[in-house]
Amino acid sequence: MGILWTIIIGFIAGVIAKFIMPGDNEPSGFILTTILGIVGAFVATYLGQALGWYSPGEGAGLIGAVVGAIIVLFVYGLFAGRQQRSI
């Protein structure tokens, strides 16, 4: 049930992150938004557990997932920007 909850929160976080940090290099579409949010939620969960903010087995909340999705979106923008400039 924990992974399902992370997917749901991740999707919502992905949508919010795209509204907070719009740009030309961002992924578009329903599936990529969902993947962005899910990866962001997992990043926030594991980063929070490593820093001691969350106990083992505890997932990141919506705010943590949004922050994780913004980090993933920023990193994606860096790599997507490099690929467009080099072509």
Automatic annotation (TrEMBL):
Q: Main localization of the protein?
A: membrane
**Where are the bilayer-spanning segments?**
6-23, 30-54, 60-79
Extract the InterPro entries matched here: Transgly_assoc
- Cell membrane recorded as keyword: yes
Give the record's GO CC terms: plasma membrane
What's this protein's family per the entry? Answer: Belongs to the UPF0410 family.
This protein is called what?
A: Transglycosylase
What does the organism's lineage look like at the top? Answer: Bacteria, Pseudomonadati, Pseudomonadota, Alphaproteobacteria, Hyphomicrobiales
